[in-house]
Design brief:
binds 2-oxoglutaric acid; 7-stranded antiparallel sheet; alpha+beta; Jelly Rolls; single chain; 4-stranded antiparallel sheet; 17 strands; 6 helices; 265 residues; binds fe (ii) ion
Length: 265
């Protein structure tokens, strides 16, 4: 299934899609209102951030489903339709809130999820880092020799050839602006860990989705919540964002294995 978001692939992997302004400012404001209007008990505090879980509890045995509210299906349905990358409707949304000095450790998402992730960003921009799994960074003997031979002389891979293979797995970053949608899947999902640094200043020199002229000057933008300005300060040599406001993200995924609702109250 080809979706219209396929035109927004970024970087060297055909498996990272970045769509700026996937939603409008008023939709962003509405979503933030809904997130902060949820009962306080909906928040779960972790060591370095808070989160809300929508769609039900994810178990090893699958999802114990709960219907998503309409303010979320309005978004998940659009992602489902425009990406064409999910075999059925998105049924789970994790909402993460990050203060300017909070982030998320490099990790790979759990096995319960279908391996396509869509992340909608609200509030402050951040940089998401993708780091190759250690097996791909340091260990050369997991390479499939047949594979290497096919592009070389048929002998054992030379150092140069090996380096070239390693080169396919170098770290990269994506600058996630408010209202943007990031989708990653396949290699970007299975061969890399993703994370966000817990510092107030994020460098985006390695960002695969930033065009030079975009960051050659400083600009401010007012945010609906919590009302502070975000700042991108950059020039050709030093590309950084100063995180001065909260970021809220909606991680939209599909759990294929859904348990039956046994009880209805
Ligand atoms: O907040 C984000 O952009 C990333 C969240 C994430 O990676 C996760 O919930 O698994
Ligand atoms: Fe994740």
């Amino acid at each position: 299934m080809e979706g219209k978001l396929n035109n927004f692939q970024v970087g060297h992997l055909p498996t990272v899609i970045y769509k700026p302004d996937f939603i409008t400012e008023s939709e962003e404001m509405l979503l933030l209102d809904k997130v902060y209007g949820a009962p306080i008990s909906k928040w779960k505090s972790l060591k370095n951030r808070r989160l809300q879980n929508w769609g039900g509890i994810v178990h090893e045995k699958g999802l114990l489903p709960q219907d998503l509210p309409s303010w979320l299906t309005m978004i998940t349905q659009r992602i489902y339709e425009e990406s064409g990358l999910f075999p059925s409707a998105i049924n789970h949304v994790l909402i993460n809130e990050y203060l300017p000095d909070q982030g998320i450790m490099p990790h790979q998402d759990g096995p319960a999820y279908f391996p396509v992730v869509a992340i909608l960003s609200l509030g402050s921009p951040v940089v998401m880092d993708f780091i190759p799994h250690s097996r791909l960074r340091t260990c050369t003997d997991t390479w499939d020799n047949n594979d290497v031979k096919s592009e070389g002389s048929g002998e054992e891979p030379s150092e140069i050839e090996t380096d070239k293979r390693m080169d396919n797995h170098h770290p990269f970053s994506v600058l996630l602006m408010p209202r943007s949608l990031l989708i990653f899947k396949d290699n970007a999902y299975s061969d890399y860990l993703h994370g966000i640094k817990d510092s107030e200043v994020h460098q985006y020199d390695e960002a695969i989705n930033v065009a030079e002229p975009l960051v050659s000057h400083k600009f401010d933008q007012q945010l609906p919540e919590p009302g502070k300005a975000i700042q991108i300060v950059g020039n050709k040599d030093h590309k950084v964002i100063q995180r001065t406001a909260k970021r809220v993200s909606l991680t939209c995924r599909l759990v294929l294995k859904v348990q039956k609702k046994l009880f209805k109250f």
